[in-house]
Automatic annotation (TrEMBL):
Organism: Cynoglossus semilaevis (Tongue sole)
Alphabetical keyword list: Autocatalytic cleavage, Hydrolase, Protease, Signal
UniProt xrefs under PANTHER family: L-ASPARAGINASE, N(4)-(BETA-N-ACETYLGLUCOSAMINYL)-L-ASPARAGINASE
Catalyzed reaction equations: N(4)-(beta-N-acetyl-D-glucosaminyl)-L-asparagine + H2O = N-acetyl-beta-D-glucosaminylamine + L-aspartate + H(+)
Primary enzyme class: hydrolase
Site, as annotated: Cleavage: 180-181
Cellular component terms (Gene Ontology): lysosome
One GO molecular-function entry: N4-(beta-N-acetylglucosaminyl)-L-asparaginase activity
InterPro entries from the UniProt entry: Ntn_hydrolases_N, Peptidase_T2
Name of the molecule in the record: N(4)-(Beta-N-acetylglucosaminyl)-L-asparaginase
Length: 321
């Protein structure tokens, strides 16, 4: 039986789910729940792929993408390529509530954040430095450059063809599994809906690269007349398909959350058999679902659900299609 309120988020990020649930239980808004739940992941560096000290880019810097969406007003706040500020989803919310804009990027987003009172600090950690220097010294490949860049060796040492890199990435399921954006949906008893995401993107990305996570309709989408969706995975591919928007529109037309999620994944699969991605969906009756693409060793996707059935976050999983 479906119940409200409901918090659902990508991956087994149990503390994030617990924080968001607690916010709703103590009378906080769905936006507070999503912001604080994702903030928790940023602070504890969930899987190394949310928050500071993860996914160093080709220059070794960690940069963050995040968004938050108010399903009542359809307002969005987002930041992309955010530098030196840990609380990316907090800044995203400030963009939504304290400007007339939707998306701020790069150094200018950082400056905005500082003006809003967020602390500027180095996002590099020993761990991210190690990932970066290991890549530089012995395993350096221009992962996210096509073979046409003038001289990739100038960037990171001996060039190896992209195909080799991809093989290698696929063989190391932990590498793939470490790309774990938090996407979260919160719905309260009154049917207010919010959704959000936070991530440090992809390791060894080209500086300036922005993923799907801060893009409305791609990383997440929320509409309180329907429900919400949030996505995770290979953002460079997923963002071309607006899977979160598609899933919400399918639910608007009567699809249940599981089949909406499946259709959104299938749409991408039509064009990319080999991509890593998953999506979570929920509607305003408290029903929820998820779907993922079968990829390499990944045949299941795990996500967290908090509702009054258990009163505590439960891990759920879905078989990939
Ligand atoms: C990105 N979608 O930046 C993110 C990464 C991710 O699970 O979600 N990994 O492409």
């Amino acid at each position: 039986p479906a119940t409200l309120p409901l918090v659902i988020n990508t991956w087994p990020f149990i503390n994030a789910s617990a924080v968001a649930w607690q916010v709703l239980q103590s009378g906080g808004s769905v936006l507070d729940a999503v912001e604080q739940g994702c903030t928790r992941c940023e602070a504890e560096q969930c899987d190394g792929s949310v928050g500071y000290g993860g996914s160093p880019d080709e220059k070794g810097e960690t940069t963050l993408d995040a968004m938050i969406m108010n399903g009542d007003t359809l307002e969005v706040g987002a930041v992309a390529d955010l530098r030196r500020i840990k609380n990316a989803i907090g800044v995203a919310r400030a963009v939504m509530e304290r400007t007339d804009h939707t998306l701020l990027v790069g150094e200018s987003a950082s400056l905005f954040a500082e003006n809003m009172g967020f602390t500027a600090e180095d996002l590099t950690t020993n761990k991210s430095m190690n990932i970066f220097s290991q890549w530089l010294s012995n395993n350096c490949q221009p992962n996210y450059r096509k073979n046409v860049f003038p001289d990739p060796s100038k960037f990171c040492g001996p060039y190896k063809p992209t195909a080799v890199v991809n093989e290698k990435r696929r063989a190391q399921s932990t590498d793939i599994l470490s790309h774990d954006t938090i996407g979260m949906i919160a719905i309260d008893q009154h049917g207010h809906v919010a959704a959000g995401t936070s991530t440090n993107g992809m390791t060894h990305k080209v500086p300036g690269r922005v993923g799907d996570s801060p893009i409305p309709g791609s990383g997440a989408y929320a509409d309180s007349t329907v429900g919400a969706a949030a996505a995770t995975g290979d953002g460079d591919i997923m963002m071309r398909f607006l899977p979160s928007y598609l899933a919400v529109e399918l639910m608007r037309n009567g699809a249940d959350p599981s089949s909406a999620c499946k259709t959104a994944i299938s749409r991408i699969k039509k064009h990319h058999k080999e991509f890593f991605g998953a999506i979570i969906c929920a509607n305003t009756t408290g029903h929820y679902g998820a779907a993922c693409n079968k990829f390499s060793k990944i045949s299941k996707f795990h996500f967290m659900v908090s509702n009054s059935e258990s009163n505590t976050p439960l891990m759920k999983s879905v078989d990939c299609i």
